Amino acid sequence: MSDPFDGTERSLGQLVASATAEMSALVHDEIALAKAEIRQDVKRGGIGAILGITAAVVLLFSLPMLSFALAYAINTWTGGHNGNGGWNMVWCFLLSFTANVLFAGVLIAIAVAKFKKVKKPEKTIDSAKQTAAIMQNVKPHPRPVAADAARIALDKGETVARSSA
């Protein structure tokens, strides 16, 4: 193979170094893509969690105050303010409770809608599949078996550890 810029042939070492650098850059780019997609989904999930927690806090802490205020307002609205009695206070408190539960239900529905928008990192998965497909077509460099590696080491004058098995 030749480099189109200077017309000289590249050595095997240069080709391996170039391939290694490009593979490393590809892996780093895929990791960056995954981080970006996950960061976006975490943000959406965080908003949903905040809304869900807010719904629980509203339901928990506002029930006593809102229930009393709404129940007395219902009693007043049904005629209790002019001495005619209005509705029984039990019904007023039940209506107050129902209104609070409906409000919390609306907040929970919004939170669930936000959670459903969280999705898997599809771009990263597609990119990883493309990389895997390309890598399957690459023929690996044949590696020497253990006996060949030991013979090569002995030829170089190195000592070889032997297994007792």
Question: Which outline best applies?
Answer: rod-shaped
Low-confidence parts = none
How can the largest sheet be summarized? none
Main structural class = mainly alpha
Number of strands: 0
Radius of gyration, taken over Cα atoms and rounded to an integer in Å: 35 Å
Residue-averaged pLDDT: 77
Following the backbone from N to C, one meets helices and strands in this order, namely HHHH
Helix share bin: over 70%
Task: Give the helix tally.
Answer: 4
Strand content: under 5%
How far apart lie the N and C ends? 46 Å
Describe the structure.
The chain is an all-alpha fold and about 160 residues long. Helices cover about 75% and strands about 0% of the residues. It has helices spanning about 10-75, 90-115, 120-135, 145-155. Helix 1 (about 10-75) runs antiparallel to helix 3. About 5% of the residues are buried. The model has no long low-confidence stretch (mean pLDDT about 75).
Quick structural summary:
The chain has 165 residues and is mainly alpha-helical. Helices cover 73% and strands 0% of the residues. The protein starts with 11 loop residues before the first helix and ends in a 10-residue tail after the last helix.
Could you name the key traits of this structure?
rod-shaped; 165 residues; mainly alpha
List the helices and strands and how they pair.
Elements (H helix, E strand, L loop, with lengths): L11 H66 L11 H28 L5 H16 L8 H10 L10
Helix pairs in contact: 1-2, 1-3
